[in-house]
Structure formats: C-alpha cells, structure tokens
Amino acid sequence: MKNSYYNIGGIFFGLMFTTVSMSIKAQTRTISGIVTASDKPLSGVVISQEGSDHVTTTTEKGTYTLQVTAENPILLFRHPDYTEKRVTLTNQRVVNISLEQKVKGIEEVILNAGYYKVKDKERTGSIAKVSAKDIENQPVNNVLSAIQGRMPGVSITQNSSVPGGGFDVQIRGRNSLRSYATTGYDGNKPLYIIDGVPLPQINDFNTGMSGSILPYSETNPLNSINPDDIESLEVLKDADATAIYGSKGANGVILITTKKGKKERTEVNLRTSYGLGQMTNVPKMMNLEQYTAMRKLAFANDGVPVPANAYDINGVWNPTKYTDWQKYFIGNHSEFSDVQLGVSGGSGSTQFSISGGHNEETTVFPGSYRYTRNNLAVNLNHTSADRKFQIGFNGTASLQSNLLPPTDFNLVYAALAPNAPDLYMPNGMINWEKNTFTNPMGPATQTYTVKTKSLNANITTSYNFGSGFSINLNSGYSTYNSNDQKIFPKTTYNPSSNIGSSNSSLRKGQKLNQSWILEPQLNYERRWAKHQFSALIGVSLQEQKSDNLVMLGRNFPSDDMLTNIAAAATITVPSANESLYRYQALYARFNYSYNKRYFINLTGRRDGSSRFGSDRRYANFGAVGAAWLFSEESFLKNRSWLSLGKLRTSYGIAGNDQIGDYQYYDTYQSTGGSYGGFSGIVPQRLYNKNFGWELTRKFEAALELGLLKQRLNVNVGYYHNISSNQLIGIPMPATVGFSSIQANLDATVRNRGLEVSLQTVNIQNDRWKWTTSFNITLPENKLLQFPNLDKSTYASRFEVGKSTSMVKLYQYTGIDPVTGLYTFYDANKDGMINSADRIISKEIKEYWYGGLQNSIQYKNWSLDVLLQFIKQSQYNINSMYGNIGYMANMPAVFTDYWTPHNPDAQFQKPSAGYSSAAATASSLFNSSDATVSDMFTVRVKNATLSYSIPIPTNEKRRFGAKVFISGQNLFVFSDYKEGNPEFTVAGYSSPLRVISFGFSLTY
What we know:
The chain is mainly β and 1003 residues long. The protein folds into two domains: 2-102, Carboxypeptidase-like, regulatory domain (Immunoglobulin-like, Sandwich); 122-261 and 280-287 and 322-365 and 373-805 and 844-882 and 926-1002, TonB-dependent receptor, beta-barrel domain (Maltoporin, Chain A). The chain has seven helices and 48 strands. The protein has a 22-stranded antiparallel beta barrel. A five-stranded mixed sheet has the order 11-16-17-14-15. Strands 1, 2, 5 and 8 form a four-stranded mixed sheet that branches. It is globular. Mean pLDDT is 88; it is low at 1-26 and 103-107.
C-alpha cells in the first residue's frame, strides 16, 4: 500500500514537472536584431527584459541576441547618449530598432553623489556640478581656479599668485570657530574625494619655512590633480547630500571623477598651450619727487636734521636716480606651459584611458623660480559577458617641484626707496653700496624648495546577484609626501660683517602622509507598478598615518655643500612627530519614489574617530530629504510652458572632527636641544577625554523649474545651518601653565542664505547656439551665542550677533588740526587709547557673490565668457602700510598727508620715526575702522575663444583639431582702486592675469 502511494505520487509530480517544463520551453525564445542611429549601427546599447535578469549589449555592428521569457515580454533599449525605447513583443523574433539622439535636459543629467548616482531630476539634495567642458582650455594648474564663480553657495578665493599655493574654500559659510587667526589651522575645510578615495586630511604640522611666501604656509591637495584629467566635479552642500559621509562631510564634499575610456574606437588626444601672466590691480607708487618731499618733510616735522644714515636724501645716494622697484620685483611676466597626451578606447566589455602631462609655471618675481608638475592618470574598466561583474581601476600620480624665493617680493621689496642703488655691481656681485645699502637680494638668496609626490588609486568591484541585489567593494590608497628645504647661505649677509659658511645653515622638513580606505557595500533595488525603492548599507574603514620631521644643519665648510645636510658640523632635530588617525563608519541609505513624482531619501551614519576619547568616540548622524515633481501631476503634465517643476527639502545633522590628532592626550614635545648630554621635553597640552564631535544641523528648502521646453531653468534654494558644540580651546588661568585646554565650547554659529541659479537657451538653430548661466548667493554668518565671551580671551575676536570673521577695531575720529596726527575715540574716558577702546566691530564678510557665463557657438567657433562678481567688506590699503616718512616707498595715495596747507588730508603728517606720538598714532590707525571698506567687484574671470578646424575624415581615419585662446582674470572693475579687492592675507601678491593660446589634436 505504501509503495503504491509513492508510485502514484511520483507519477503525479512527474507529470506536473513535465507540463511546467514544456510550458516554460514554449515561452522561452531568442530575439535578435540590429540597433541603429541615424542609419548607422550603434554599439554599446544595453538590451534587457523588464522584470528579469536577461541582458545583452550590441556589438560594433549594432547586432544583438537575447533570450526572453514570458508571453509578451517588454524589451528595454538603453544608451547614455540616446533616448530609451521600450518595445512590447508579441510573436516577433527579429526586432530592429532605431534610437534617437538624446537632447540632454536637466532630467537626463546624472550626478555623482558619492556612494551612489542619481538623476538630477530625481535628486532630493543640493548638488552642484561642473563638467569637463567648463574646465578645459583654462590656463590654471588647480581646478579650483577654473570653477570660481560657477556655483551658488561655493566661495573660492586664491590666496596669492605664487604657483602651488592654497585656496580658501567655503561651502555655505564657516561653521567652525577654528580658523588660522584663532587656532593656527582651519576647521572649515571641505572633504576632497577623487574617484572614491578621500585625500589625506589635516596635517597641521608646520616646518616653519614657507609662511612668508605662501599664506598660512598652506597648499591645496588638488594641486596634484591635472585639471585636464577631470571629467566632472560635484559639490555636495546640504545635509541630504553630505550626511552619507557623516562627520567628514560636515563642511561640504567636493567629488572629482576622472576621465574614463569609452566603448568606441581607440582615440589619441594631444593638447598643448602656452601663456603669459602678470599682476594686475597694483597700486601706483610715489615717484622720486613725491618720495623725496615726503622724506624731507618727515624729518622737519620731527624737528630733527637729516641724519648721516638717511642715504636716500642726504646726498650719499644719487638724488636723481629713479627705479620703479614695483615693476622690477612684481612687474615681470610669468610663463605657463602645458602638454598633455592621452590614449583611450575600449570594446563592449573593456575600456581604458591613459594620460600623462607636463606643466610648468614661473613667477612674476625676478629670478629663475619655477613650479613643475608631471602627472599620470590610468583608468581601466571591465565588465563580464553576462554584465553581472564589473571591476575598475583608477589611479592618478603626480610629481611636483617648486623653487620659490623666501618671501613674496610684493611684501617688502617693492617698497625700496626710488633712488636706491643698483642691486648688482657690474661684475654680477650683490651691491652693498659701501655698507650704505641693505640689499634685499642678499636675503633673497635664501631659496625655498618643496618637492611633493602624490598617489591616489582605487579598485572598485561590483557583482549583481540578480533580483535587485548587488554588492560593491571600494578599496583605495593615497599618499601625499612633501619634502621642503630652505637654505641660509653666507650671501645673505653683507661681506663686511665677515660672516662665512660657518654661519650658513640648511633647514629640511618632511611631511609624509599615507592613508587607505576599505568600503564594502550592499545594494538593493526594486521596482513594481508605480513604486520604486533602492537601499544600500555599507562600512567605511580608514587609516591615515603622518610622519613629520624637521632637521637643521649648521656650520658648513663651504656654501657649495649647503644642500647636503651631511656636510654640516652640527645637526639638530627641532621637531619630529608621528600620528595615526583611524576612522570607521557604518552607513545606510533608503530611497523611495512613487509614480516618478514623489521621492524620499533617508540617510544614516554612525562614525567613530580616534581624535576623541573612548567615551566620546562614536556618534550618530543622519538626514532626510524629500522631493515632489509637481510637473508630473495630471493638471500640469501636458502644459507646454512647464518642462520641470520640483519642490525639495532636507534636514539632517553632521559632525566635525577636524582638530588634529591626539588633542585629548597629555602630549609633550622635545626641546630640540640638549643639556648635559640629555635632551628635554616640554608639555604641549592638557588631557581632556570628554570633548567630542562638533555638530551642524542643516536645513534646506528649494524650488526648481524648467520652463519653455527647458529653455529657461530656475533654481532657488534657502539653507539654514546651526553649528554647536564648538571644538576650540577654552581659556585657562595663567597659573595652570597653559593658555587653553581643548574642549567643546557651548557656542553656536548660524549660516543661512539664499541661492539662485538661472540657465537660459537664448538662441538655438543649425548655426547658432547661445546659452547663459547666472548664479547669485546671499550668505549670512552669525555667532548666536558664546557664554562668558566678555571674560574670555576671545572677547577681542568674537561678538554675539556678528559674523565669526568679525574684528574689533578702534574708532577713528579724524586728524587733529593742531598736531596733524590721527585721533581715536576714548571709549572708557581714561585718557588713554588701548585695547579697552576697541569698540568698533567690523565684519570681514561677503554680502553677496555670484557669476554670469555666456556661451556662444557659431558653426565651428565657440566663445565662453565668465564674469565673477562680489559685494564684500574687506581690508583696504590702510591696513597694509604703516607710518608715512620711513625709508620705504608707499603708494601714491599716501601723498595726501596733512600739512598746514592741506588740513583736510586723508593721512596724518609724515614722521621719520623720531616722534613716538606719530608712531603710536600710526599703529593705532592700522587697527582702526579706517582699514575696512565695503567693495563691489566685477571680474572677467575667464574668456575663451576656440575654433574647431574642419578636417576631411573617412570611416577609418578621423581627425579633430581645435585652436583656442584663453584669458584668466582678464579685467577687474571695482570701486576699490588701490590693489586686489579679494586678498585674504594682506601684502601677498594677487592672482595673475594670464593669456594663453594652444591647440588640441584628436585621432
């Protein structure tokens, strides 16, 4: 009976299996065909069956073959440059399709959001993008120079004209109170990521060699990246966009994607350019007659006869000799040259791109100073035949070498007396003019050299399991190693002092940084009916090591051996340290959309940083973003005037750990010397394990509109960020032995603002195309609270209700008509002017800033012009120059000084330094409200004219050639006439006007 039961059951299940198998076999069939575009075969088209894992790609001849199931399957034909097509099959077995070229509107633009990609139309966060087209052909060696004025909410200022220097980058304001002015390092730097690998962050070690040539001794990590290797640059701004990076994204994220190979034929690209640069907006200096009159009057005002050491006016130096030292030291032309060669190509499954280049730039200073960079970029991508497995390698490497003077010549050398002696004697030796001349070319022989090696590489792998599941693994490695040195030869000194090579010295420093990152990630996507959602969860593990060292060699046998520290009789190590930074995070994202019009995005991250004590090491951050595509609603969908209408908003919390390593420990530092054969150590900071993450709460609301078939696109956004738990030194009593202790200060900073961007297509036909892009940002930065501020050492630095860039100054009350000296308001009526009388608060800030770009194309001609504009409160020329009357030339504006015949003068009477009252008044004037002015500036940031040369081609040989001429910082129109209106550090030379020309060839 039992056997009979099993026999019957076996027959039943066997029959059922056979029936199902026959049914499936009946529904499975092979579809083939050819895909074309403009009557030509199209390769790289991805064909898939909706709702299944069946997928294939067209060959170079446009052919494909695909197994499909189901009775009436739906085929999807996709290509990034062509419109997607859906075909519902009936009984066909051959399906030939023609795709149309895609006219990319905002809904077709794909944005890199870091751990995922999103259509611009569907994003819930604030992401700004600049493409390779906007970057190419610009005579810059750092991409940040190329994107100034192109993005709302992103303020970028170049610190000086010196190649290899730094940039001040602010994404929606300054959230942290930590700045160079308060702590010696900036806690507001954005996170830079290249192809998924973050660049090393925070190495606040300073070798002490470059401060007088590079503002804040700072460089920028993007100096190592060749702008021509960049495919796109995205800036993540709000909480929804940055929260997935947790604490590292608190100040915004700059994502750089390098160029990749394409699924086309092999292509060779050559691009070269050459340019000349010069300083602009330099103040006009006094001529010899004006200078001599000022100097003589200065001694007369002091009641002192012209002394024997006043060589410029007592007849020792030629009274009729005149040299324009400003022109000599900073009026030269710098040279720019750049050569880039690249090869790219690939087939349906493998793509590659290899490029290399050489870049050189000189300075406007006299001398053979030069910056060079050699770069290499490699990209390889492979996809398996079933399209499930992908692997890619991205690598960029650069070697930088920079030879610079010890000091920016604009700081001091351009102020030489107009009749100062020649710098060199006829035999080429430095001229000391019989010991009457302190020749600046002596100290100028203290050359500063820095060499940098950087490598950024990552391997990404992904596997699609089917059913919506896939896994990614991103592994990256980055190094940024810098070696600098400064020589102090005997030529620094006047030979009459008999200082020889025994007093020469060499200072060498090294900053070695290396980091690795490992990020596994699981993804899931599902779509059914009107619902679509995606989710990801991942882990980020990162480690960064820094090894810093400074060596000092003294007493050399000869200056010929000065660059070899082994030749020094005495070698000391003034400072050395190692640091290890570890970072780990768990992050997740969930995105849901309904009916392609309602979107919600949830992001969460738990971060752990070794920069905090064990009790405060971990913290949770997250954000929520939502968007409504109201243009997809039935009552608006078919309106001809509305192409896109979207409302979006976001809120979230981010953290910040940019404080340097080991800040919570008791730390000590070597004294760098020895006593009795033993070296000593000194304490650096106090132990405090209780400080933790700085917090920023971010809110945004925005409206996006595409009108008139996207000929007019408007984006308006409002952001409101509150930063608290500020990581800054809390002042301590002097009896403790430390001025402050690192801790969380209960101070709150608010950044809010309005961002508006506008894009228009003014003309578009077969011959002409004219587009305009406009953006403007109205930011506000304010300190909302700071407990016991008036009793702290920060009382002179901050004020509640004012910007965090506020400065306290004396109130200037004019020139005393009797003494001819500056006067100031005595706030406390004690009869003295001192720090207690600094009652005027001036904010060094931007009222608004933006850019206007016009792009015009006519046949093979193209013209792009970018205007950058800013309304700001900034330091003026009064903050840069001291007392009038010393043996130093000054801008001609200072000839408006007080005399009995000029009582309404702008400046006080000259003094040669013998009047303490005049010197004190001048010093107070440099710290008064007379040194800050409101300025409006419009800068022609870039203008590029290019022409594509028509060259006959055929199917086997295709050439492309283009010539171009480009100008950077071409013209500046400002109501501030006495120098660079955008300087961040007084006295340093301003960014150059550069005009370059070049050509590119493609084969």
